[in-house]
Every structure is written in structure tokens, then in C-alpha cells.
Amino acid sequence: MMNPSKLNAPYMHAETVTIVLLPGLDGTGALFAPFVEALGPGCEAIVVAYPAELALDYAALEQFARARLPVGRPYFLLGESFSGPIAIALAAALPDGLVGLVLSCTFARNPHPYLAPFKSVIGLLPVKSEAAGAMLMPLLFGRHGSVEAHSALRQSLKRVAAATLRRRVRSVLEVDTTARFAGLHLPMLYLQASRDRIVFARSGAQLARLAPAMTVVSLDGPHMLLQALPAEAAREVGQFMRRVLHDAGR
């Protein structure tokens, strides 16, 4: 893997760029560690961690995240997987300072509509079982599933209450932020994993149709793209941020 510090030279200059990171389904933010490291010292990453013991829906998590946005400076917002709808909702509210939106392996509405009729039985899902975790790892990481990556995900999930995870899964099956996304008018980058077995390409394609000006970058990796390919993802995000700030004359 390329040394993350070497990625800084092409696009990270003297000033600091700020990016707010909204996490995947675990909500801990701990899994961003390799991506944050790859962004390098020229980027200040604000990692939002959702309450692990509270079974909050998307609306409540949006308010939680809103309270953690920086004030008095330009910043970018990144929504990973589960947090895509939250990032979209926040961007649609036109918060002061937001200059660009990054969406990674995510969606504006339920990516698996055929599962919606089964949301009433989500309470029966064994979300904390070892067997469920073992089944999910290949889907999440594919061939990039190292022992360290699996361990980091397991540790993150252990910190989150089962009721919280089930509420988040149900929220995914109920969400639809397409109208708000269609109304966005700011620079956007969509990171797509070519080997994503959780959020299929159709979710990204739908967003691209709604926002033709959005930059779409496909990387050869799994759903856990920021964890599996942190250097490559950081390069794309860094270039996007620098381009936006340059065009804005900042």
C-alpha cells in the first residue's frame, strides 16, 4: 500500500481542509481510522459518532449530526453507506460553511426495496450473533477482508446495542431522500465500489441521474471502501476538495 503521507503532495497544501465524516451502520466512527490517516495532516477530519445505546431514526440522527457541524469555516461533508441519507438531509438544509458533499457507497432511498415488506420482523434479526457477523464479512470486505479489518468491525459492533442496530436497519428500509437530493446545488462526489455486494451500482446510478453534474468515481473495491482502499479513496476525496476550494477562490 502506498504511504499515505505521499498522497498529500499533489493536493494537500499548507492550509487545512476540514471534512466531517458520518459513519456506516455501526455508527461508532472508529472504522474511519485508516481513511483519516490516509487523508494526512493537511486535512482535519471531524468524526461523528452516533449514540450507541439509543435506537434513533434518521430524523433524530440528522439532528444529532447537525449539532456537530463546524461553525465559522468552510468544510466538506462525507456520508458513508448508512449515513448517506443523513448527509443528504443536512446538505439540503444549506448549513453555513458547507462547500461540498461526498457520498461513499450509499443511497438516497432504500437500496433493497424488495426487503421493505419484512421490516416488521427486523426485531428478530440476530444482529449481534457471531454467525451473522461471519456471513456479513465476505459481503462487506470481499477479498480485502483482512483479520485486522474483521476484528475492527466486530469490536465496533460490540459497542452498539442490538436495538440500535435494528432501528438503523429499519430506517434504511423506510428512507427516501431522493426529493431532497434532487434539489441540491453544490459540488458533489460519489465514490462507488465496483465490487459492492451491499449497495449495488443502481443506487449510485439513480443519484447520478438526479445530479448529472456530480462527479462519480468507481474504485475496484468492496462495500467497506474507505477501510479496504483508504489511500485510493483519500486521493479521490482530497483531489475533489482541493478542486472545489480552488474553484471557489479559497
From TrEMBL:
Q: Where is the Serine aminopeptidase S33 domain?
A: 56-213
Would you say which domain of life the source belongs to? Bacteria
Q: Which keywords accompany this UniProt record?
A: Hydrolase
What is a GO molecular function of this protein? hydrolase activity
UniProt keyword Hydrolase present: yes
List the Pfam families: Hydrolase_4 (PF12146)
Q: Which Gene3D superfamilies does the record cross-reference, listed alphabetically?
A: alpha/beta hydrolase
> By its UniProt entry, which InterPro entries does this protein fall under?
AB_hydrolase_fold (IPR029058), Hydrolase_4 (IPR022742)
Is this entry keyworded Kinase?
no
- This chain's protein is named Alpha/beta hydrolase
What species was this sequence derived from?
Massilia glaciei
